[in-house]
Amino acid sequence: MSKRTYLLILFLWLTAAVSPVFAGQKADTTYTFRFVPQKDMFYVPLGGNDIELARLLECIESNKTDILDGNLPLRVDGYCNSLDNEKENLRIAAIRSNRVKSELIVRGGIKEECFITKNHAADGDFVIVRLTVPAPEASAVESEGLSKAEEERLAAERAEQERKAAEERRKAEEARRAAEKAEADKPTGEPAAIQSEQQENTADTPSKSKPSHLSLRANLLRWATLTPDLGLEWRIHPSWGILVNGSWTSWSWNDKDRRYALWEVAPEVRYYIGKEKRGYLGAMFKAGEFNYKFSGTGKQGDLKGGGITAGYQLRLNDALSLDFSLALGYLNADYEKYEVIDGVRVRRGNDTKNWWGPVNAGVTLVWTLF
């Protein structure tokens, strides 16, 4: 036998021995999609999800007939372990699985019946899709002659697939931890943008008012006219407040020929409006006495009235705010006129005044005690 004939026989023998092994190999059928910890949105560009999705859609297109006929199911496993309890983890894992399946149904043209879904409260924040593509069928002669070898090969392939799946889960968990650390150190990338948007939404959300609190009040406009003014407000409900303000002053000069003295008490009920309960409408009543003498004739008497109040509280910090208020209504003043002669007040008649219009104004510093 010539050397060339010997080499040809050896080549044919090697081809026959190796071809069943390569004929029975399966394509890579494991696809991993990563998710932001504690979130259920499927971000396709995140962590290479776009590449995995393209690979999976290509595989689905190649085997669509078998998939739609039910001969080749897609096994979907959703994972989540970044929340506080198992129930919440399973809920988020299920939502993640559904979002991935929705992408495959819309882009791949398959149906819900094509999936076998299972969710897990463990391992990480990802979804794994497995598609077991069958190997080409061997001939009857090869099956009979290599049945034991084929069984060993299939067992080895199954073990290799399990190893790959475990490796994918490990890599996904490492990627999740690395992303969390990167966000904590220096927020960058897609997860940081998501976190920033959530922080902005949280900042835009109005904080709830305390169910009840007590505040000390001082009308700065009164203090500016040398009229000490103090008050208390009890917010019995985030929308309702009861308050009372009191003012008192007594001044005389020019050897008691000039006089400025008064006292007032003004209770009020308010209804706070808006999401932050800063604006309000209310009803107030006021009563008091006065003694004014800025010229030759003085006026001494009492007053009473009330009106509708409106205003807004501007928050300065957790404890302080400014209350801008205005009241419109009616005031009645009954008073006596007098003159001072040789230090003695001499009565010069009496009068009554009725007033419709602004009856109170305030720029009030409010200090929340508790």
Query: Order of strands across the widest beta sheet?
Result: 5-6-7-8-9-10-11-12
Overall number of structural domains: 2
The CATH topology name of the largest domain reads: 60s Ribosomal Protein L30, Chain: A
Mean of the pLDDT scores?
81
Low-pLDDT runs:
16-27, 137-145, 188-193, 200-208
The CATH fourth-level homologous superfamily of the largest domain: OmpA-like domain
What level of helicity do the residues show? 25-40%
CATH class of the largest domain: Alpha Beta
Distance between the termini: 108 Å
Question: What is the correct CATH architecture of the largest domain?
Answer: 2-Layer Sandwich
Count of β-strands: 12
Which quaternary structure do these chains form? single chain
What's the overall geometry? Answer: rod-shaped
Q: Biggest β-sheet, characterized?
A: 8 strands, antiparallel, barrel
Number of helix segments?
Answer: 8
Global Rg: 42 Å
Task: Tell me the β content.
Answer: 35-45%
Class by helix and strand content? alpha+beta
Order of helices and strands: HEHHEHEEHHHEHEEEEEEE
